[in-house]
Amino acid sequence: MRSQGLRHVITHLITPLLMCIGMGLAYMGAFVAPEPHHLPVAVVGSGPQAKVFAQTVKDAAGDKLDVRTVATRSAAVALLDSRDITGAFVPSGRTPELVVASAASDMDATAVEKVFTPVAAEQGNPLKVTDVAAPVSDDPTGQGLFFLLIALSIGSYASVAALGAAGAGLRMRVRALLALGVSTVVGGIGALLAGPVFHLAHHDLTTLWGMAWLYSAGILFVGVGLHTFLRRWTTLAMMVLFVMLNFTSSGGLFRPDLQNGFFGTLHAFWNGAGFVEGARSLLYFGSDGLSRNVWTLAAWLLLGLAVMVIAAAYERSKAQAASAAPVHGPREPAAEALDEEAEEEAEETVGV
Predict the structure, then answer these.
(1) Of 271, 276, 323, nearest to 135 (Cα)?
(2) Short-list 299, 315, 311, 310, CA closest to 217
(3) pTM score over 0.85
């Protein structure tokens, strides 16, 4: 009996230990040593001198920078607004200028400034830095949207345990409606945090709420559907999908050009990146690129719906098989075990 209880405890320790390993690998791999990796920058000028200067910068930086030339400063600002570049250097015999958009990424702006400050110093001139898209004063580093993403994610994946485990006796249709309601509330909480509470969003709060709802609903639908197959391992799967891989590839702290190729690849289609980049587009860049990010969130929502449909079909076939089997009493021990497992899973998720 004692050995059985010990084995039960050890089994439940597997999840937090795997989380420890996964979080360490993901966070340290993504954030510990950020280095420019094909960081896109521009040199303003159209003559041979500008092209030679751009090639000189490229040769000195190697793979750290992708350097292009643009004819005018206004063209460079347009590229910054569309986030095709992270900085534009405007050569000058007196005061060379670096134009950045720190709302796209404060870390990128800092990295570009570190590149061009010594370049200007070699020419004996101070570098003037102009920020054409700075974050609001309430969020000076521009990282508030990343922490909003964390709040939305926790509210979403932690609710999966209640909907999947405690609601396992409900029809999938009912669980889907509950997930829809929870995501509406989570999105509303996110809008309140971003607007009246911390003032990250000074406009378009309704649209931001809609994006938060899309993001949350996608997580909830995926999680509730997966729970049918994974049961108590759903918590670990949700942490992998929507914490370890999600936060690290979202671009909330470091954009992909300061990370290795793995996280850069995920950034192109993961839902956290869709929310963070979409919120930046909405709040700071005149909604440029917003539709693509909304489609990313919508694709995750459709993925979640597909998982739920598959799970519903599986549960129906399982229920039909169970109804065809002989009944051995009013209450099977397996049913009690399922209730106990559901309670343990909910406690485990809240603990995480």
Answers:
(1) 276
(2) 299
(3) yes
Q: Which residues, at least 6 apart from 230, have a Cβ–Cβ distance to it below 8 Å?
A: 237
Of 79-88, 232-241, 298-307, 334-343, the poorest mean pLDDT is in 334-343
Q: What are phi and psi of 99, to 5 degrees?
A: -105, 125
Q: How many residues does the chain have?
A: 352
pLDDT at residue number 351? 44
* Average confidence (pLDDT) over 271-277: 97
CA distances from 298 to 118, 181, 213, 218, 273 (A): 44, 17, 10, 8, 13
Taking the C-alpha atoms of residue 261 and residue 265, their distance in angstroms, rounded to an integer, is: 6
Residues 57, 36: Cα–Cα separation, whole Å: 14
Contacts of 300 (CB under 8 A, 6+ apart): 214, 215, 218, 219, 222, 271, 274
Query: In this structure, are strands 65-70 and 87-90 parallel, antiparallel, or unpaired?
Result: unpaired
| DSSP-based three-state secondary structure for 40 | strand
Taking a C-beta distance cutoff of 8 angstroms, is the pair 138, 149 a contact?
A: no
Q: What distance in Å separates the CA atoms of residue 154 and residue 150, rounded to the nearest whole number?
A: 6
DSSP 40-79: EEEEE--SHHHHHHHHHHHHHHGGGEEEEEES-HHHHHHH
What 8-state DSSP symbol labels residue 199? -
